[in-house]
Amino acid sequence: MHAITIPTPGGPDALVWAEVPDPVPGGGEVLIEVAATAVNRADLMQRQGLYDPPPGASPLPGLECSGRIAALGPGVSGWAVGDEVCALLAGGGYAEKAVVPVGQLLPVPDGLDVVTAAALPEVTATVWSNVFMLAHLRPGETLLVHGGGSGIGTMAVQLAKAVGARVAVTAGGAEKLERCRELGADILIDYREQDFVEELAKVTGGAGADVILDIVGAKYLARNVDALAVNGRLAVIGLQGGRKAELDLGKLLSKRAAVMATALRSRPLAEKSAIVAAVREHVWPLVSGGRVRPVVDRVMPLRDAAEAHRVVEASTHVGKVLLTTG
User: Fold this and answer.
1) Sequence-ordered list of residues with C-beta below 8 angstroms from that of 110, at least 6 positions apart, any chain
2) What are the beta bridge partners of residue 323?
3) How far apart are the first and last CA of the chain?
4) Residue 204: pLDDT above 90?
């Protein structure tokens, strides 16, 4: 098969289209003939040599894919060759074929085509596991989403609104903010021109956010704590603004607040399977019913992965950038 490889870490041109051996499904695994994959920030970090795959995972980039089942490994039941599926991966999505543990497999939701389904696994698993399973966002609470125009951001807005929460977003520029408003965001903050702590305080009467989903990390840590409500929960899932910062524990104590940080890719198989099962139970009906939808900025050939990485690095997109094998 052909795949995007990374012979030497570096810029987008480090991504090389090459012929590699076909993967073979082992016990409890499924082989997928890939229709599409998606570009995630983790792929950019891996390309730069900053984010190695977990032990035993494919060295190829790609944390999700969609396609059709080509073969079942020993011990797999409940699925059949030819089923249209999408999957959460630890690596290997940038290829014509991929192997995935059966617990990380999802059916393509009703009403969605197999290519568009590639936009779902990583964002739904990330948002559901952090905002709902970890931070326990409840109806009537306020969620602040940093990077509201990203794939994760656009999904977080929709899922939070679906459960009856109020949603604030930060994004750069009027166009991205308007897209967030169309998805249901109630509070729009342009981080280039506005201070999100001040703006959030104005519209919440000084209460702040009950839950914050943060992709920035160190640069926003102190201000995120300032923006938290009493009993607030900060979930850090990215380090785009660095990894080291000072934390005022006194403010956390006074607010009875919590700071949590998680990564999805390196979690044990059992944990990822539990997250995927929760996504299928809670999120898939919303997608099939049309209340939640993947936001796709553009679809490009897998061979053009380098250009797709440039698009994501420039942050000119809204939602997901997909790569197709066809």
Assistant:
1) 288
2) 37, 300
3) 13
4) yes
278 contacts 133 by C-beta, under 8 angstroms: yes
In whole angstroms, what is the distance from residue 14 CA to residue 325 CA? 19
CATH superfamily of 2-120+266-324: Medium-chain alcohol dehydrogenases, catalytic domain (3.90.180.10)
The two structure tokens encoding residue 27: 């016990």
pLDDT of residue 326: 84
Nearest to 287 by CA among 133, 172, 127, 169: 127
For 124-261, which CATH superfamily applies?
NAD(P)-binding Rossmann-like Domain (3.40.50.720)
Supply 21's token pair. 């051996």
DSSP code string of 137-187: --TT-EEEEESTTBHHHHHHHHHHHHTT-EEEEEESSHHHHHHHHHHT-SE
212 secondary structure, DSSP code:
E
Cβ neighbors of 3 (< 8 A, separation 6 or more) are 17, 18, 20, 60, 92, 94, 95, 96
Instruction: Phi first, then psi: give them for residue 166, nearest 5 degrees.
Output: -95, 140
Q: What is the pLDDT of residues 137-172, one digit of tens each?
A: 999 999 999 999 999 999 999 999 999 999 999 999
Q: What is the DSSP string of 180-226?
A: HHHHT-SEEEETTTS-HHHHHHHHTTT--EEEEEESS-GGGHHHHHH
Q: Which of 66, 87, 12, 21 is nearest to 43 (CA)?
A: 12
Q: List the domain boundaries for the chain.
A: 2-120+266-324, 124-261
